[in-house]
Design goal:
This protein is mainly alpha-helical. It contains 6 helices and no strands. The longest helix is centred in the first third of the chain and has 31 residues.
Length: 134
């Protein structure tokens, strides 16, 4: 094995572990903020729930990935990851205010509001990631 691989592997594993922890934490918070049960809906074949949750996860993962690429410490990653999560939750809450029927639309399987929510989440995540380049 190349020496470089062996010397950088611990950093990779540390950043990966923190990123996965942030992703799981974000997912748990997001699932508790939404009034419907995405996982049960997805298991039942609800595409609207899958699309909206996928958008939220991608919208969160983009800034986390960007911070990994540009941060110097795991504390930077954890701090900016927490900020990214808060921004994504706020994006969901603002979208819910914009589309008051969203709480009924996703469980009913209406795909148009789910796509809109996913696009908002993805767009906010993209902007969030760009703002976290330092």
């Amino acid at each position: 094995m190349p020496t470089h691989l062996l010397t950088t592997l611990p950093a990779f594993l540390a950043y990966f572990a923190v990123a996965m922890g942030l992703l799981v934490l974000f997912l748990l918070v997001y699932l508790n903020v939404t009034p419907y049960h995405e996982v049960a809906l997805i298991r039942a074949g609800n595409a609207a729930a899958a699309v909206s949750l996928a958008g939220a996860l991608l919208g969160f993962a983009m800034p986390v990935a960007n911070v990994i690429a540009h941060s110097d410490t795991l504390i930077d990653l954890a701090s900016w990851g927490a900020i990214a999560g808060v921004i994504q939750i706020l994006a969901y809450l603002v979208t819910r205010l914009t589309l008051p029927q969203l709480n009924q639309d996703i469980p009913a399987g209406r795909i148009a509001p789910a796509i809109f929510l996913a696009a908002i989440s993805f767009s906010i995540g993209l902007i969030n990631a760009a703002c976290m380049t330092y």
